[in-house]
């Protein structure tokens, strides 16, 4: 992990990161009312129409319903224990993707820190939109340097299950993803420790 990222990691926690013209990733809303209200204002200014919250441990549904009723809220909570993510979790994410894309909307995907779960679902979305895996990983990491995407292989597996790839192509894609992570390693445990220390 480079020193510049290490010194700036706290600022990335809740930063709204534009991946494409229709996709953003971030960490969650601050528990501090002033900062939280500023985040929602920023979401509106960015044209966010759909928030996909993948935290198992919390939900902002009632808060956003009261403060930003024009933003659709999708709660697709899952664990972040380092094990595999179920294929069904990624498939549940298809509904917000399909609705937002059909309506020309803008999706924000977030978890708590914006390191693993949220960016992994965003990676799945890019794969569904036909992005090559290496390009999808690059654009996500460029937009959000702390995006570790630890469940990227699970996302690719879920996408392959939907019929985009034959078994050999799916295997080749997994090899591309593994190689990309070897070449673009970041210390996830250290990132999480730094963010937790400053919460």
Structure write-up:
The protein is an alpha/beta fold and 199 residues long. It has a single domain (12-78, 85-189), classed as Protein tyrosine phosphatase superfamily (Protein-Tyrosine Phosphatase, Chain A, Alpha-Beta Complex). Helices cover 55% and strands 12% of the residues. The chain is built from ten helices and five strands, in the order αββαβαβααβααααα. It has helices spanning 3-12, 33-45, 61-67, 87-92, 94-103, 117-128, 133-143, 152-164, 167-183, 188-197, and strands at residues 17-18, 23-26, 50-55, 72-78, 107-110. A five-stranded mixed beta sheet has the order 1-2-5-3-4, sandwiched between helices. Strand 1 and strand 2 form a beta hairpin.
| Overall geometry | globular
Order of neighbouring strands in the sheet with most strands: 1-2-5-3-4
- Structural class label: alpha/beta
Helix content: 40-55%
Strand content: 5-15%
CATH level-4 homologous superfamily: Protein tyrosine phosphatase superfamily
The CATH architecture: Alpha-Beta Complex
Count of helical segments? 10
CATH class: Alpha Beta
Low-confidence stretches: none
CATH topological fold name: Protein-Tyrosine Phosphatase, Chain A
Q: How can the largest sheet be summarized?
A: 5 strands, mixed
Number of folding domains? 1
Rounded to the nearest angstrom, the distance between the terminal CA atoms is: 21 Å
Rg is 16 Å
């Amino acid at each position: 992990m480079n020193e510049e990222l290490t010194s700036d990691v706290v600022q990335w926690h809740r930063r709204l990161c534009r991946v494409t013209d229709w996709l953003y990733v971030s960490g969650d809303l601050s528990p501090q009312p002033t900062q939280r209200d500023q985040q929602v204002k920023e979401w509106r200014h960015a044209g966010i129409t759909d928030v996909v919250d993948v935290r198992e441990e919390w939900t902002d549904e009632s808060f956003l319903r009261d403060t930003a009723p024009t933003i659709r809220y999708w709660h697709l909570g899952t664990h972040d224990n380092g094990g595999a993510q179920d294929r069904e979790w990624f498939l549940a994410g298809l509904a917000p993707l399909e609705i937002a894309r059909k309506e020309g909307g803008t999706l924000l995907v977030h978890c708590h820190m914006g390191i693993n779960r949220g960016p992994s679902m965003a990676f799945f979305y890019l794969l569904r939109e036909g992005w090559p895996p290496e390009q999808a990983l690059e654009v996500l990491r460029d937009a959000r340097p702390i995006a570790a995407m630890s469940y990227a292989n699970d996302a690719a597996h879920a996408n392959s299950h939907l019929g985009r790839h034959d078994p050999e192509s799916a295997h080749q894609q997994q090899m591309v993803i593994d190689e990309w992570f070897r070449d673009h390693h970041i210390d996830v445990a250290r990132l999480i420790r730094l963010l937790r220390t400053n919460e």
